[in-house]
Amino acid sequence: MTDKVFEKTITKQFEFDEDVASVFDDMLSRSIPFYKEMQRLTINFGLKFLKESDKVYDLGCSTASTLIELSKHSPFPLELIGIDNSEAMLQRARKKCKAFGVEVKLLNEDLHKANYDDAKLIISNYTLQFIRPLQREKLVKKIYNSLQKDGIFIFCEKVISSDKVLGKQYIDEYYEFKKRQGYSEFEISQKREALENVLIPYTEEENKNMILDAGFSHCETLFKWVNFATFIAIKK
Q1: Residue 116 near residue 83, CB atoms below 8 Å
Q2: Measured CA distances, 114 to 59, 146, 152, 184, 193 (Å)
Q3: pLDDT, tens digit, 9 for 90 and up, residues 120-131
Q4: pLDDT score at 206
Q5: 60 among the known binding-site residues?
Q6: How far apart are CA 100 and CA 48, in angstroms?
Q7: Is 139 within the bounds of a domain?
Q8: CA–CA separation, 100 vs 171, rounded Å?
Q9: Residue 96: its pLDDT value, please?
Q10: pLDDT confidence bin for 23, thresholds 50/70/90
Q11: Is residue 210 one of the residues assigned to a domain?
Q12: Contacts of 148 (CB under 8 A, 6+ apart)
C-alpha cells in the first residue's frame, strides 16, 4: 500500500500503529535514501561473519524485510529471530515470512527486557534513534554483552551534523529527496511534527563513541548519505 499516513492533519505523535504498519514498506523505500543499498551492505557484511546455525537477531524488526533477505542470500541455514514491540508490524512480518517460505521466530517484546544472548549478529535498523539517550546507552551495552566473541552489531541510524550550517543543508537536501519521492510539503511537515521529540538522532561521532563506550573494539561507518548512516561494530 502507498504511504498516505500524513495526508491528513496529525492528532498524535508518531507511533508504529496499524496505520503506519499497513504502509511501512512503502514508507521505508520513499523516506530513507538508498535503503536497499544499506540493507544489501548489512546482509553482505553480516554473512562474512556467520556460519551455519548462528543466531541472528533483528531488534525492531518491523515487517522482517531484512531477515527475509538475509535468509534468501545465506548459503546455509541460520537461526533468525526478530523482536519488535508493535504487534501490527509483527502481523505483517508473519504474513511476509510465510509468503517467502522463510522461518523466522518473531517476538513481541520490549528490547530492554528481551533475551538475545549467544548472538553472532545483531541488527538494528533505524531503531536506536527512537530510544531515549540514557536507555539507548544501556541497550547498546546489553547488545554488547549478548554477542559472542567476534560477534558483530550492524545498525542504521538517521544522523545529524555537529555543524549548524551543514545541519541546515542536511535538512534541505533530505527535504528535496522526499519531494522527489512524491511527498507533498504538507505531508513532510506533518511527519516532521509527529516525530518531534520521538526520533532523537545522534551525530556520527556520538554513535561511534556510544558503541566504543559499551566495550566494542571497533566501529566503522559502512555507508553514509547526508543524514543517514550504516555502522558496523565488532566485539573482540
Answers
A1: yes
A2: 10, 11, 18, 39, 31
A3: 999 999 999 999
A4: 98
A5: yes
A6: 23
A7: yes
A8: 37
A9: 93
A10: low
A11: yes
A12: 118, 119, 120, 235
Written in H, E and C, the secondary structure of 135-181 is HHHHHHHHHHHHEEEEEEEEEEEEEECCCHHHHHHHHHHHHHHHHHC
Is 125 labeled as ligand-binding?
A: yes
pLDDT average, residue stretch 26-32: 82
* Entry pTM: 0.91
Does the annotation flag 156 for ligand binding?
no
Round to the nearest angstrom and report the end-to-end CA distance of the chain.
43
Q: Is 110 annotated as a binding residue?
A: yes
The answer to whether position 6 is within a domain reads no
The residue-averaged pLDDT of 224-228 equals 96
Q: Whole domain around residue 170: which residue ranges?
A: 15-234
Average confidence (pLDDT) over 30-38 = 92
In a domain, 172, yes or no: yes
Tell me: is residue 3 an annotated ligand-binding position.
no
61 a known binding residue?
yes
| Cβ pair 230, 154 in contact under 8 A | yes
80 is in an annotated binding site: no
Residue 3 has pLDDT above 60, yes or no: no
197 is in an annotated binding site: no
Rounded to whole angstroms, the Cα distance separating 206 from 214 reads 12
**CATH code at position 155:** 3.40.50.150
- Is 44 annotated to bind ligand? no
pLDDT above 90 coverage of the chain, percent: 78
Question: Could you give the number of structural domains in the chain?
Answer: 1
